[in-house]
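Lecture notes, part 5. Sequence design as translation. It can be helpful to think of inverse folding as translation between two languages: the language of shapes and the language of residues. The source text, in structure tokens, appears below.
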């Protein structure tokens, strides 16, 4: 997420992706009033575009993998919680106050979204895929 934020800044975008009112990562339509300035700005930032495009694609794949198979509105809520907690860095308490939800709901739903995001982008490592670094300590009472 840090590298993605830095790549966004290099190409002249806000460090944090904006959420639309529907919690979509899709940008709103843009005005053509500043198209000349925007074109000049993009030419100046062209060297950073390949890195940005790759990271933005990865972020988009992970973001759109976040879902709740039971209901579409629950998918939107899970994506909102993911963005607020892991992208914007709000605490669980802040999120609870903002959206009027319980602490356990916010924690569980944001964690599920985080796991779905990481699984899609290849950051999730399952326990059976790793070698144990520390053997469990067992006590024997003899």
């Amino acid at each position: 997420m840090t590298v993605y934020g830095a790549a966004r800044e290099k190409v002249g975008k806000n460090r944090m992706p904006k959420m639309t009112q529907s919690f979509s990562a899709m940008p709103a339509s843009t005005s053509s009033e500043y198209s000349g300035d925007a074109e000049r700005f993009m030419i100046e930032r062209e060297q950073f575009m390949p890195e940005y495009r790759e990271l933005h694609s990865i972020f988009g794949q992970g973001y759109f993998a976040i879902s709740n198979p039971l209901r579409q509105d629950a998918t939107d809520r899970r994506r909102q919680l993911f963005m607020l907690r892991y992208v914007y860095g709000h605490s669980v308490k802040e999120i609870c106050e903002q959206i009027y939800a319980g602490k356990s709901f916010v924690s569980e739903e944001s964690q599920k979204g985080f796991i779905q995001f990481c699984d899609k982008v290849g950051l999730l490592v399952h326990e059976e895929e790793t070698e144990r670094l520390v053997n469990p300590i067992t006590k024997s009472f003899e």
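The translated text above is only one of many valid answers, since several sequences can fold into similar shapes. The mean pLDDT is 76.
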